[in-house]
Write a structure and sequence with these properties.
The protein is α+β, with helices and mostly antiparallel strands and 146 residues long. The chain has one domain: Molybdopterin biosynthesis MoaE subunit (Aldehyde Oxidoreductase, domain 3), CATH 3.90.1170.40. The protein is 31% helix and 38% strand. It is built from three helices and nine strands, in the order βαβββαβββαββ. The strands form two sheets. Strands 3, 4, 6, 8 and 9 form a five-stranded antiparallel sheet that branches. A four-stranded mixed sheet has the order 1-5-7-2, with helices on both faces. The chain is elongated.
């Protein structure tokens, strides 16, 4: 089990390799990326900032909770800080388990706890040149399904 706050591009393949075991029948990979809009506003990038020691400690706690709750040590999570462009990975979660349901549930638990508890702040940059700090726990406004 490993978690880290990083300031470089996340190497997804290396995270997957860290959770590989012959005893695991399922591996779930979650990649959160910077999208090109939020709440109807076109986005060009995001700046993520944090107080490193606090964020590192909380991310580790989240992973430990998931490990205990879903009975797997095969969890690796990295959250990137700094300036990211549209399409860049901001958070990657790799979870492996003997059973698929537990792998999915652990991954979901981790991302939901990250959104709720991880003290990382984001400032979106818009195509009109403005920037705005965004509450990472707020639910985005979603239009009707098509």
């Amino acid at each position: 089990m490993r978690s880290a706050i990083v300031d470089d591009v996340i190497d997804v393949e290396s995270l997957l390799a860290e959770v590989e075991r012959d005893s695991n029948g399922a591996t779930v990979l979650f990649i959160g990326t910077v999208r090109d809009q939020n709440n109807g506003r076109p986005v060009t990038g995001i700046e993520y900032a944090c107080y490193g020691p606090m964020a590192t400690r909380e991310l580790s706690s989240i992973c430990t909770e998931a490990s205990e709750r879903f009975a797997t040590l095969d969890i690796v999570v990295e959250h990137r800080i700094g300036h990211l462009f549209v399409g860049d990975a901001s958070v990657v979660i790799a979870v492996a388990h003997a059973r698929r349901a537990s792998a999915y549930e652990a991954s979901r638990y981790i991302i939901e706890q990250i959104k709720r508890r991880l003290p990382i702040w984001k400032r979106e940059e818009y195509t009109d040149g403005t920037r705005e700090w965004v509450d990472p726990t707020a639910v985005a406004v979603v239009g009707p399904a098509s």
